[in-house]
Amino acid sequence: MRAVRSFLSLASVAVAFLVSASQVHALEPAKGKVILTISGKVADKNTATGAAFDLDMLEKLPQQTFTAQTPWDKAPIKFQGPLLRDVLAAAKASGTTLKAAALNDYQTTIPADDAKNFDVIVAHKMNGQAIPVRTKGPLFIVYPFDSKAELRSTTYYERSAWQLKSINVE
Fold first, then answer.
1. pTM, whole model, 2 decimals?
2. Nearest residue to 35 (alpha-carbon basis) of 126, 127, 108, 132
3. Cα 20 to Cα 46: distance, rounded to the nearest angstrom
């Protein structure tokens, strides 16, 4: 009987370890080319340092679409991608500041509240097409500039980041 109890006790410890290990890596690993990494205050990691997303992972999140006039384009652009808040939630990110970095070394600081207060998206399509690196891709943090007058300002234009590669949550 003592041996059975010891075995059951050991088995329950092993199950608890496996459950906690699976919770640490609950975010599925990227299978394709990683196009976005989220580091810093991230609770759901799929790498040693944070959350890595490939395009398929981002496309599995609920998609949003809006059309907006930007200061960088002559005509309004239709943007599509997941909400920034949904991407952050997928990684269980928590913090007050987002430091976004682009492939071209552009960096911007975004208050985390912007993801809650505005329908900011991580666009992977412009006008229905994947965004090539040479024209702002593969990812573009973009605000719905036409939805509120306050968003049509230098403050929010500077928080937008095309050629997005990473976000550090502080």
1. 0.84
2. 132
3. 14
3-state secondary structure of 95: coil
Look at residue 18 and tell me if it is in a domain. no
Condensed to tens digits (0 to 9), the pLDDT of residues 70-125 reads 999 999 999 999 999 999 999 999 999 999 999 999 999 999 999 999 999 999 99
12 part of a folded domain: no
| 100, 101, 102, 160 from 106: Cα distances, Å | 8, 6, 5, 10
Domain that holds residue 36: 28-169
Please give the Cα distance from 70 to 72 (Å, whole number).
5
Q: Quick check: is 96 in a domain?
A: yes
Helix or strand run (H / E) with residue 114: helix 112-117
